[in-house]
Specification:
The structure holds two protein chains of two kinds. Chain A has 16 helices and no strands. Chain A has two domains: 2-66, no CATH class; 80-310, MetI-like fold. By secondary structure, chain A is mostly helical. Residues 1-11 of chain A have low confidence and may be disordered. By secondary structure, chain B is an all-alpha fold. Chain B folds into two domains: 6-67 and 239-290, no CATH class; 69-222, MetI-like fold (Orthogonal Bundle), CATH 1.10.3720.10. The mean pLDDT of chain B is 86. The chains are: A mainly alpha, B mainly alpha. Chains A and B meet through helix 1, helix 2, helix 6, helix 7 and helix 8 of A and helix 1, helix 4, helix 5, helix 6 and helix 9 of B.
């Protein structure tokens, strides 16, 4: 008995001085950390704590703790709703399309730019291709809206092809193409930077050697360039797949309307509409939580694959 | 140097043609907007198809845009958020990145995990909305500054930059009796200028572009940042505030030109500065890629 007590006491006694010594030695460091950690606790972990309202019938009056528990009612309602499959389909469809068309585009641009010998020309094309990255999303969507409007330039051409003038953003069949094409325009230049960096790291002697062996441009691309930048491509691809459920919903909210919900509404835009506009707080939190959880597991598996394939991981 | 073959020369020419074509496609929408913004109202209304020169010339739309109180106020609010937001973001990120770049710090690993976890999992939009509301920031400009003041990705880039600074420099300073604040101020910050420039630019672009949180948290119109004003004009099609003062018959025709002019007023300042800052942005992408 005596032994047990003294044992119980010595452990903290041994630990405490070490911790205190640490604190004393780095006291300024810990002081610096206080505001930083407070930010994360309040604005990052605060909402995670608040996410428990997904399992409650939350009303602002009763507060998070005061609202009654309802179990998984809201999740059941979401999975059973007629919108569930539509939202899942749109989310996956839009992210797959941006992946298939948007992922190779900057790689191709970087490969083409890499072959240019005139430095001024390369620089000019690069500068132009980055430009859309610096235009705010609201303005980008404003331009899309004007161009696709019934008096817009795209309609001017369609009329010549014998089509009727109409607002293209009202057509559900066109929403996703408009989203994906404008997405490529916005991102192609900026995303090519990383591949250009990888390309500049390729050993020039490899090309010389390939040339001596009689390899043409195409052969050099397949046997030298692509294998050398493959690690970068794989990492970027895995990152991309990991964030599949995180579609740029701000752009969707700016561009969609009641006519195009059928093809435009994704999980996060639905969360916004239900939660902020229709005040179904608990229900939309449940929908958002579902999205966050799926996304988290996508990132986890992407990271695991990345470790195996490439020996690079996110953390 | 091996002489280039005919095939290679042909390839180079085709390559340049393709890139020129791509560059023109990328540039065209912006050129169109610029030309339309200096067109006259009825000129633009009659114009169809591609636009390489203005349809009629008039700067009336610009005059109306810069005299619209909402646009001016929006600019003012954005500047306010930019100045205070940048100051807070940089202070917080620098302190956090410096503290967590100290190698022997007790608990460093756990804290880093705690921070990085938030990159991959979040409570979601609605709980975030209530958190900000409960803290008492709703309907203030600080709602657009404080809740988003640290960006974890920027923090990681900054920390990577700090870690690249040789330890020996600060060790000698410490022997001379400098505390950690002095080390940060006198040694780390001057040496980390490039990475700090990158992060300032990243935060600035982020603040300049953001509109969604403003829409969530602001009820008072006089607090609207520029992007939210632009949303009303461009997305919700509301140009009434601008044409109200005009009064005469052709202001109705100006409606479209006004939108183009608004886009230019909100975009040209950025597009003029950015080519000079380009190299910093690109550098950040590389640093971030190391541990992105």
């Amino acid at each position: 008995m005596k032994q047990a007590i003294s044992f119980g006491k010595t452990v903290p006694r041994q630990k405490k001085p070490r911790l205190l010594r640490e604190l004393a030695k780095n006291k300024y460091i810990y002081i610096m950390l206080i505001p930083f950690l407070l930010f994360y606790i309040i604005f990052m972990y605060g909402p995670m704590y608040g996410a428990m309202i997904a399992f409650k019938d939350f009303t602002p009056k009763l507060g998070i703790l005061g609202s009654p528990w309802v179990g998984i009612k809201h999740f059941e309602a979401f999975f059973g709703s007629i919108y569930f499959w539509r939202l899942l389909r749109n989310t996956i469809s839009i992210s797959l399309q941006t992946l298939i068309f948007g992922f190779p585009a900057p790689i191709i641009l970087a490969l083409l730019l890499n072959e240019v010998r005139q430095a001024w020309f390369k620089k000019t094309v690069q500068t132009i291709s980055y430009m859309p990255h610096f235009i705010s999303l609201v303005v980008v969507c404003g331009i899309i809206k004007i161009f696709t409007g019934s008096e817009g330039i795209i309609n001017d051409f369609m009329v010549n092809l014998g089509q009727e003038r109409r607002d293209l953003l009202l057509d559900p069949a066109l929403f996703q193409p408009i989203y994906v094409i404008s997405d490529i325009w916005q991102k192609i230049g900026w995303e090519s930077i990383i591949y250009l960096a990888a390309l500049s790291g390729v050993d020039q002697e490899l090309y010389e050697a390939a040339r001596i062996d009689g390899a043409g441009k195409w052969r050099q691309l397949l046997s030298v360039t692509l294998p050398c930048i493959l690690p970068t491509i794989v990492v970027m691809l895995i990152l991309r797949v990991g964030s599949m459920m995180n579609i740029g919903f701000e752009k969707i909210i700016l561009l969609y309307n009641g006519n195009t919900y059928e093809t435009a509404d994704v999980i996060s835009s639905y969360v916004y509409r239900k939660g902020i506009q229709e005040f179904s707080y608990s229900f939309s939190t449940a929908v958002g939580l579902f999205n966050s959880v799926i996304n988290f597991f996508l990132v986890l598996s992407a990271n695991t694959i990345s470790k195996k394939v490439n020996d690079t991981s996110l953390w | 140097m091996i002489k280039r073959s005919v095939g290679e020369r042909v390839f180079e020419i085709i390559n340049i043609i393709i890139l020129t074509f791509l560059g023109l496609i990328a540039l065209y929408p912006l050129w169109h907007v610029l030309m339309a913004s200096i067109s006259s109202g009825d000129g633009l209304a009659r114009h169809t198809g591609a636009m390489f020169v203005p349809a009629g010339f008039s700067l009336k739309a610009y005059q109306l845009v810069i005299n619209t109180p909402m646009v001016l106020k929006g600019y003012g609010n954005t500047l306010y958020i930019l100045v205070f937001g940048l100051a807070l973001s940089m202070a917080m990120t620098i302190l956090g990145a410096f503290a967590l770049s100290r190698k022997g710090l007790y608990g460093r690993k756990v804290i880093l995990l705690f921070i990085i976890f938030t990159m991959y999992f979040s409570g979601g939009m609605i709980p975030f909305y209530f958190t900000v509301k409960n803290v008492g920031l709703a309907d203030t400009r600080w709602a657009l500054i404080v809740p988003t003041c640290v960006n974890t990705f920027n923090f990681i880039i900054m920390r990577t930059g700090f870690e690249a600074i040789p330890v020996s420099l600060e060790e000698s300073a410490k022997i001379d009796g400098a505390n950690d604040f002095i080390v940060l101020w006198k040694i780390i910050l001057p040496l980390a200028k490039p990475v700090i420039a990158v992060i300032v630019l990243y935060y600035a672009v982020g603040i300049w572009n953001s509109w969604f949180n403003a829409m969530l948290f602001l009820r008072s119109r006089e607090l609207y940042p520029l992007q939210l004003v632009l949303r009303e004009i461009l997305i919700q099609n509301d140009t009434a505030a601008m044409t109200m003062g005009g009064g005469d018959a052709d202001t109705g025709m100006l409606n479209e030109v006004l939108k183009y002019a608004t886009i230019c007023v909100a975009t040209i300042p950025i597009l003029v500065i950015y080519p000079f800052l380009q190299k910093y942005f690109a550098k950040g992408v590389m640093v971030g890629a190391v541990k992105g």
